[in-house]
Amino acid sequence: MKKHIKSANPYMPLWEHVPDGEPRVFEHNNEKRVYVYGSHDTEKTQYCGRDYVVWSAPVDDLTDWTYHGVAYSTHYDSILYAPDVVKRGDTYYMYAAEKCGSLIVVASSKSPTGPFENPVETKLGFDPGILVDDDNRVYAYWGGCAAPCYIAELMDDMVTIREETLVSNPLGHSTCPWDSVDDGHISFEDGFFEASSPRKVMGKYVYIYSKRYEVPVPELGVFEPNNGFLSYRVSDTPFGPFKEGGDISYNGGEILKNDDGTGTMTYRWGNNHGSLACINDKWYIFYHRQTGVNEYSRQAMVEPVDVAMDSHGRLYIGNITYKDGEPVSSGPVEMTSQGPNINGIDAYSWISAGYACHIYGGKKNAYIMPGYEMRDDISTPVVDISDGTTVGFRYLQFGNNAPGTVTVQVDSNRAVTVKVRIDSYRGRVIAGLQFNGDETELTVPLLAGIIGKHAVYFEFNCKDENESISFNRFTFD
Predict the structure, then answer these.
(1) Do the Cβ atoms of 139 and 238 come closer than 8 Å?
(2) Please, what's the b/e burial string for 331-360 (b: 16 or more CB within 10 A of its CB; e: otherwise)?
(3) What is the average per-residue pLDDT within 259-271?
(4) Which tens digit of pLDDT belongs to each residue from 79-132?
(5) For 158, 177, 359, 467, which has the most beta carbons within 10 A of its beta carbon?
(6) In contact, 124 and 112? CB cutoff 8 Å
(7) Bridge-partner residues for 109, per DSSP?
(8) Tell me: the pLDDT tens digits for 365-381?
(9) Which residues, at least 6 apart from 98, have a Cβ–Cβ distance to it below 8 Å?
């Protein structure tokens, strides 16, 4: 029986909705694994939920994720926002964001999967990020756009702030959609929005955060305020000054390059939160994307990134450009469907439309329908597709033997033509399917051979401009 792709991008099952993922590599019981801790979009009508779940994978296979269940549930009958977890000594500490992030408590466990128990209230604030330094000293970072961001050292109890170390506004913050007060620290350069996540990289202190762009970024198709970025700044000390940063991740999908040098987004961007992790000597950025029609059904995503330092000690993270072997600039890595499958998704498995990283064009705003049924073969369709919509996947792996056919599943009551293209949404057509409104699945021969790794796009055309098509899944044979 043909298998169903899982652990692509998103790397958790399509029924799971864990945003704000903070990755941590822990060695426990003589096994080294990467653990992801995030909030949990289970409320469906508002952000997050009332528990945290834990997923992990072996460091040598980021396509093999295990669900460990609920690690912490609210103790205050409240919604839990983004947490963080660190290990100090033989104890794991979870900084849980109770009451929608307005109350941070520290719970502990002897296991990275919990349960995390005995929560103690702290004076930390929104979106806490914790750094256990090489000398075992502990630093907390927190804040949001409506208030300054802060850094402080914690005492050995992992709870109490060393008040004399408290630093406010280590980054200038962005404007805030719900609070227009200008406190003199608004910055177009730093643009701190939320999602503090400190990391130590090549001896440098790296402040990873969600940046809100107030000025256009034309090459990425950004012309209005946008906080879909994970960005970073760098310092030689835990407290700053932070400088010389850039962008690591942007969740606006594939960026189409226009002739005038501008870009066009192909996925509905939204808030972003995550962090950097070195796993088995390779670097990855963990972030999230949106599904549905709001920000209440987000999914965990991951991409490999490059990390390098130039001869002057400047650190570059993301998609790095080199000149004569020296890093000279960096930008956000591309958003893909493959995630940890760095050689591409197996084209000969069933691939859900829910792995699309490109949904573009048409008369309607097509989107991925969230799914919550806990099945390995779940497929989350792209819905509200209309005439001219393209749905793309980067990347598929076809191997050395060219497939002979492609099978596509759609749902439409009227005639629909589907063109299958490779490498670009305007690329070479390798198959054409004609649905007459009665069938939901068609298999047709390919018009050309294809081997190796390619992006694949499905272009939908129908005579009725008001038609709403649902695209479920596809496979090659």
Answers:
(1) yes
(2) bbbebbbbbbbeebbbbbbbbbbbbbbbbb
(3) 97
(4) 999 999 999 999 999 999 999 999 999 999 999 999 999 999 999 999 999 999
(5) 359
(6) no
(7) 92
(8) 999 999 999 998 999 99
(9) 74, 75, 76, 78, 80, 104, 105, 119
Average pLDDT of the chain? 96
> Phi first, then psi: what are they for 181, rounded to 5°?
-70, 130
Give the residue among 147, 68, 53 at the shortest CA–CA distance from 101.
147
Whole-number pLDDT of residue 184: 78
Bridge partners of 230, per DSSP, are 210, 249
Burial class (CB in 10 A: 0-12, 13-18, 19+), 264: middle
Domains and CATH numbers, the chain: 22-331 (2.115.10.20), 352-476 (2.60.120.260)
- CA 308 – CA 242 distance, rounded (Å): 18
> Per-residue confidence at 187, pLDDT binned at 50, 70, 90?
confident
pLDDT for 180 equals: 67
How many whole angstroms separate alpha carbon 151 and alpha carbon 141? 5
pLDDT higher than 80, residue 181: no
Q: Who's near 135: CB < 8 A, 6+ residues apart?
A: none
Contacts of 439 (CB under 8 A, 6+ apart): none
Residue 153 has pLDDT above 80, yes or no: yes
Q: Dihedral, CA atoms, 63, 69, 73, 79, nearest 10 degrees?
A: 40
Q: Are 122 and 105 in contact (CB under 8 A)?
A: yes
CB 95 within 8 A of CB 109: no
Q: What is the CA radius of gyration of the chain?
A: 23
Q: Which helix (H) or strand (E) holds 101?
A: helix 98-101
Query: What is d(CA 423, CA 404) in angstroms, rounded to the nearest whole number?
Result: 18
Contact 446, 430 (CB under 8 A): yes
Map residue 291 onto helix, strand or coil: coil
